[in-house]
Every structure is written in structure tokens, then in C-alpha cells.
Amino acid sequence: MSDLTTDSVPRKPLDVRIRKSKSKFLIARGNEVRDLSPTAESIWREIDGKATVRDISRIIAGEFDVELDVVLVDTLELLDGLSDAGLVDY
Amino acid sequence: MEPAGYLAVLAENAALPPDRCAIYAAGSLVRGWGNGKSDLDIYLITEVPWQGGVVSLDRIWAPPGVLPVQAFYWDGRRWDVEHWLDSQVDEVLRFLSWERFEAGEAKGATLTDAEIALIHRLGTCEVIEGSDWIKQRHQEFDRSAVKSVLAAQALYRLDLCTEDAIGMLEAGDAMSAVLAARQALGFAVDALMAVNGEFERSPKWRAKRMLTATPDGISFEDYWSLETMNNYDPRNPDLWINDAMGFCQRIAEMIEL
Q1: Same domain, B37 and B124
Q2: Inter-chain CB proximity B257 and A19 less than 8 Å
Q3: Residue-wise pLDDT tens for chain B (257 aa)?
Q4: Looking at residue B36, which CATH number applies to its domain?
Q5: Domain that residue B206 falls in
Q6: Cα separation values, B220 from B10, B142, B208, B223, Å
Q7: Which pTM was predicted?
Q8: Which residues, at least 6 apart from A4, have a Cβ–Cβ distance to it below 8 Å?
């Protein structure tokens, strides 16, 4: 587990490779590849190197009409996994 | 010029075979982007190989792998006449099938710029002869995977240049990183243009193609600022490189293959 918190500001490493098709949204760096779900893709798209995890979660909660606390947990879990794979920095 | 005028000039310059599927004029002049120095490109499609004179035999992918090209000057302008076989157009169409693309078979070989121009220009050409052939071929390529194939190839090259740029930057070679980032920017825009139907790859027309395609989510001004290195600071090249790489990444996220 990393020390990612709701105040962390995630960033996308510039050498992440991205491929989108009708059914997949793939991100890859080195040998690490992830196929993001539509919700995870929405979270990924909100990462801009300025927004905190809480900011991103707030946007997603509004977009999908879900409780912020629930989204925060899911967003932290997703970003934690991506961070471990080197697909997100913070 | 009227079709009869084109045909007369081609006949006068020994560039008109007897049986033709189609003839069309294309390129910058036809698109309205030309100038006094621009060539006129003529595409001549037949079922039997051209037997007349040539100035070059260009290497292409489509079997038999050569493209006879004639060139002459008429009224102060250079005409380039490419003699294509109908069977070569069939081969290019097969290369660009969705089945091959989805099976990953289109990755290995690469169409040449001549083949890509031939296809793209079906949609922007001036018909001289064979309008039914041109219309049918245009529809066939429109239904093919051409946009996805060419976008995927450009994205692959973008990835390579991005890795180069970042590796060079990490090694302290900012000068080479700038050049790699400039290449990456070109490939990113080419990929975006490909999925928007502007898939010819000549770098000199990239800005014109951006203005024509007007892709959603990317402003021409942002692109042009990076292309012209407007905010490049030689004391801190990392800034421009990071901006360019970030822009490329945003483009990659927008492209649906």
C-alpha cells in the first residue's frame, strides 16, 4: 500500500501509453497494462496534475450520482493500484 | 480545367493508356491549398500495366510493388502522373480490412505515402473520367479500417518518440529530447487527423489538415503554439517538452480506434 491520501494530487506519467477502442480503455507503461472500466476511465480522465483525489472523487460522485464517501474509497483503491504499477505518480 | 482539357494534355504528353477505370486530379491545387509552384497530381487507374515511358518506378507495398510515374511540364506547371492498377487498389483495400486490423495483421507492413494519398484523395479529387469507379472506391475505403489502421500506426510511433524524449531528458540530453518531442507531436496530430478522415501524412500540410478537420477537444491555437515552439525557453527546455508530451497524451486519450 502506498501513502496516497484524499489530499494527494495524482499525475499521469508522460510515457503512459493509451489505447481506446469501442470496448476497451487500455493504459500501459513498461510491462504493466490495465484495462480500465468506464468508471475508472472517468477517474483517469480527471487526473490533470492539479486536482486532488477528493476533487476527482467529487466530480465522479456528481457524474454518477453516488455518495462521495463511497467514491473516495473506490478512487483511492484504483489510484493506489495504478500507483503500485507505476501508471500514476503523486 | 474541363475533363476534356485534362485528357487532351495527357494524350499530348503520351500519358493516356487506351482502357481506363478512372482518372482524377488531386493534391494541393485541387484542395485549394496550392500555389504557383505546386505540382498537379494525376491518378490514372487501369486494369493492365502501363507500357509507356516513365521518369521513375516508385516502390510501394501493393503488389507488384512498383508504381510507374510520369512527369512533364504543361503551361509552366509540373504534372505528376501515377499509373495505378485496379488490382493494386484491391490489394490496398484488403490490407485495410477490419478483419486484418482486429487480428493485428495490419501492424507489420506499412502502406507507403503514395498509397495513402491515392486513397485519401478519392474523397477530395476532381473527377476527369470514371466517376462511378471513384465513387464506389471512395465508399469501399470509407467502410474499411483505414482510419484506425493509420491512427494505430501513428500512435505506435508516438509511443516510441515519447519514450525516447523522456529517456533523453532523464539522461540530461535536452537537445535530443526536444527533437524527439517534436516528432512525437507530429505523430500525435497525425493520429488525430487519421481518425478524423484527414489521413494523408505530409508534415507540411499538418496545420491545414488541423484547420480542416477541426477535431473536438483540441484547439488549433494550442496545437500551433506547440508546433511553433512559442513558449520554448532554451534555459528550461523541459517546460516545452512536458507541455508537448502532455498535449500528445491528451490526444491519445481522445482517439478511439
Answers
A1: yes
A2: yes
A3: 899 999 999 999 999 999 999 999 999 999 999 999 999 999 999 999 999 988 999 999 999 999 999 999 999 999 999 999 999 999 999 999 999 999 887 666 789 999 999 999 999 999 999 999 999 999 999 999 999 999 999 999 999 999 999 999 999 999 999 999 999 999 999 999 999 999 998 999 999 999 999 898 899 999 999 999 999 999 999 999 999 999 999 999 999 99
A4: 3.30.460.10
A5: 147-254
A6: 40, 25, 10, 5
A7: 0.92
A8: A10, A53, A76, A79, A80, A83, A90
B169 shares its domain with B225:
yes
A24 touches chain B (CB under 8 A): no
Tell me if A54 is assigned to some domain: yes
- Three cell numbers, residue B56: 521513375
Q: Are residues B70 and B81 in the same domain?
A: yes
Spell out which residues of chain A touch residue B257, defining contact as CB-CB under 8 Å. Answer: 19-21
**Same-domain status, B229 and B210:** yes
Residue B39 CA to residue B73 CA, distance in Å, equals: 9
CATH number at residue A30: 1.10.10.1150
Q: Does A50 fall in a domain?
A: yes
Q: Is B162 on the interface with A (CB under 8 A)?
A: yes
- Could you give the number of structural domains in chain B? 2
Helices (H), B121-230: 131-143, 146-170, 174-195, 206-213, 220-227
Helix (H, G, I), strand (E, B) or coil at A27: strand
Q: Do B132 and B194 have their domain in common?
A: no
Would you tell me how many other CB atoms lie within 10 Å of the CB of residue B12? 11
Q: What is the sign, positive or negative, of the torsion defined by CA atoms of B29, B33, B36, B38? A: negative
Residues 222-251 of B with CB under 8 A from A: 242, 245-246, 249
Which residues from chain B sit within 8 angstroms of residue A17, using beta carbons? 159, 162, 252
Q: Determine contact: A17 vs chain B, CB below 8 A.
A: yes
Of B95, B125, B144, which residue constitutes the final position of a domain? B144
In a domain, A70, yes or no: yes
